[in-house]
Amino acid sequence: MPQHSSDNSQASARRGTCIACGAATKGPFGPCQACGTYTDVALVLSGPNLSLKTTITHYLRRVLRMPAIESGYLPSPFNTDGNLDASKRSTRRQYLTSISTFFAKLRLGFIVDAAFHSRKVRSDFYRILLQANPNIFILLLYVHCDDPEVRNYRRTKRNSQVLNTEKGAISREEEELSLRRYEIPDHETLPNNTPIPTIDVDTARMLVSWQSAQPSLLDDGHIASRVIVSVREALHTGFS
To answer: Which range is most confident: 157-161, 167-171, 184-188?
Structure first.
């Protein structure tokens, strides 16, 4: 069981107070009304390549003022010949997990932008976060683009850019591999079998929908409600 600074700090967060400054928050997982900090929150963006995960992450980081962990800035899992290297992929995942665990233990809200292609990888990640912080609220954003013409446009646009955070240009083969490997979230649960709140983000049709059976999480002030509004804003700022 992870150790926090004090029992009082745990009780304080459950009452809806900021872990950073101690002021009241707007709801149990809402922002601090004094400094805007989110406490005990993890936003997990998952989806195949070219789905706009990083674009949405940048927008959420800015409007929510949360630190973001982007897998594209971590060591590439590809060899110079373009083939996926299992050892490098494992190392990259360890980096991602280590940084995420650090924020979870601090109890500061944060965003994670990574593909998380398989249900097992996502499930293992949820378990690790909860081990680091049993009070953390995990919100999954399934970000996808099902239109091949839109993906082709995005791939062409990305490949034309000089700077790239990952291995470079994305080939059609890599895009198709990502799509084949990805396992769509379907009623996923946390280790205690609690359904994980999920937001479906269809970036081809520019639609954002709530996939959870917990309507109370959409109350004004809750992080889920704020994220839905912010993602809709991100999709209509002209980025594609």
So the answer is: 184-188
8-state DSSP, 76: P
Q: Any idea of the CA torsion for 41, 44, 45, 48, to the nearest 10 degrees? A: 180
- Residues sharing a CB contact under 8 Å with residue 204, sequence separation 6 or more, in sequence order: 144, 145, 146, 147, 150
- pLDDT tens sequence across 173-196: 777 777 788 899 988 998 888 899
Quote the CA–CA distance of 10 and 5 in Å, as a whole number.
Answer: 8
β-bridge mates for residue 84, sequence order: 78
Q: Which residue has the tokens 């099902």?
A: 146
Q: Is the Cβ–Cβ distance between 59 and 237 less than 8 Å? A: yes
- The whole-angstrom separation of Cα 174 and Cα 83 is 9
Helix (H) or strand (E) holding 136: none
Which tokens in the block code for residue 55?
A: 């674009």
pTM, rounded to two decimals: 0.83
Both structure tokens of 58? 């940048």
Q: What is the pLDDT of residues 89-126, one digit of tens each?
A: 677 778 889 999 999 999 999 999 988 889 999 999 99
Judged by DSSP in three states, 131 sits in helix
Q: How far apart are CA 20 and CA 110, in angstroms?
A: 14
List, in order of start, the domains of the chain with CATH numbers: 29-235 (3.40.50.300)
